[in-house]
Amino acid sequence: MNKNVFTIYYFLLLFTFFNPIYAAKHNSLSSLQRITKVGENTYITSKIDTENDLCFWFKKCMFNDLYTFYRVGLCSGKNQTISLHPDNISERILNTASSDNIGPFEIKDGGWCGGNHSFSMNNKTIKTASTISYKIIADGKELTKDTTMLVNTIRISVVNHIQNPTLPQWDNKTLSLPSLLCIEYVDYDIWQNSIQVSVRHQYMNERPITISKYYGMQSMFNNEIEILTVDGKYSDWTPISKIKRFNKRNYPHFRCFLERNNLAFQSSFLFNDGLGEHKELSDSDVIFIGNSYGKSYHKLVSNKERKIGDSDFWKGVYTWNMINKQKDASLLMYNGQISGRKVLYIIIKSKINKDITLPTEFCHRNLKIIYQSPSIKIKRHYNNAYQILSKKPGGIIITV
Fold it and tell me: CA of 82: how far to CAs of 31, 52, 85, 99, 325, in Å?
């Protein structure tokens, strides 16, 4: 670590522990995040509980060197504020982008492109995508130099080019994909324990192509032992060996899956917007794929045509939490962030008619429902208790 970055860490340490205003304001878990930019590497750390920090590492990765979150993991942080690790590389890895992260496409008569996928012909292998630009924006200001600071909001904006695999070209025994399939715009908004992803594609291919498959929101959760799908086939924690794919016809409201290992769990929630409406899947299409070479993912497009001028988009949010040792057979509740607001996920595992007490920050407030399974009803019952009534499993996400 260079001298300038070390100096920044030193003064942040002094500020955190000797500033009385800061200490008074942040006597509970800190709402701030620490961001460190070192070259193309961006490290982001926040509190996940009083014993652990959650660490995100963004860099160019996968076969195509696309800028995205490369690692997500836990670091020891036994205090109320963010610990100041010198390198911020996670001690316990939860995710590693060793394969596809966001995307990719399978194009009819062309093969796969984007994400981690290469293109091969006559013993030559080349990339199918590239990152053209990226911006690191902290509290509304772009970071152009190496720095470390405490901030509230972080956005990483990335522009990728995805090449058209149906039009390969040879020139002096050199293989290339000179034609663009689309420009991919990706915004990563990081708030505490959540990464919200917004993806837009602007198609540039003059000759129409057919997208055989587009998966979009994927997960590579390490050492997973169980999966739960909200409004899906697996309404309670199910051993990974028993997980298979299921289709849209049987589970039309599915849009969230959870994965757990012995340390933590992750949810991958897809917004009911754009491709997330699943209108580009037929009823017989697969809507969820799990336990596939260590990955699970939402499927968003199947056998749809695209041409120059077309566009599409989707949004989703990844959220990480520690395993709660106090198990409830009927429901699971956990915190996250959506669009800068704290949210509460309530996952219903079975038929239920139960009063629950919400966390303090949700009491005596007007609640807004972000997502609600068709089968679930929630209403204030008395004081801080809410009644949840459902004839089958599902989920609800609320904010204030």
Answer: 9, 9, 9, 30, 24
Tell me: do 253 and 278 sit in the same domain.
yes
Q: Quick check: 3 pLDDT over 70?
A: no
Q: Is residue 173 located within the same domain as residue 230? A: yes
Residue numbers of the domain that contains 194: 99-322
Q: Are residues 250 and 165 in the same domain?
A: yes
Residue 267 has pLDDT above 80, yes or no: yes
- pLDDT (tens digit, 9 = 90+) per residue, 114-146? 999 999 999 999 999 999 999 999 999 999 999
- Per the structure block, which two tokens stand in for 224? 């997973």
Specify whether 137 is located in the same domain as 261: yes
Domain count along the chain: 3
236: its two tokens:
């309670």
Q: Indicate the range of 73-77, 239-243, 319-323 predicted with least confidence.
A: 73-77
Tell me the pLDDT tens digit for each residue of 349-400.
Answer: 999 998 888 888 887 677 899 999 998 998 887 767 888 999 999 999 999 7
Residues 170 and 201 in one domain: yes
Do 306 and 200 reside in the same domain of the chain? yes
Contacts of 92 by beta carbon, 8 Å cutoff, 6+ apart: 73, 74, 75, 263
Report the CATH number at residue 348.
2.60.40
In sequence order, what are the beta bridge partners of 268? 257, 318
Task: Please give the Cα distance from 296 to 306 (Å, whole number).
Answer: 25
Alpha-carbon 13 to chain mean position: 30
Q: Model-level pTM? A: 0.90
Other CB atoms within a 10 A radius of the CB of residue 144 amount to 9
Instruction: Please tell me the predicted confidence (pLDDT) of residue 8.
Output: 39
**What contacts 295, CB < 8 A, 6 or more positions away?**
99, 100, 218, 219, 220, 289
Pair 136, 279 in one domain: yes
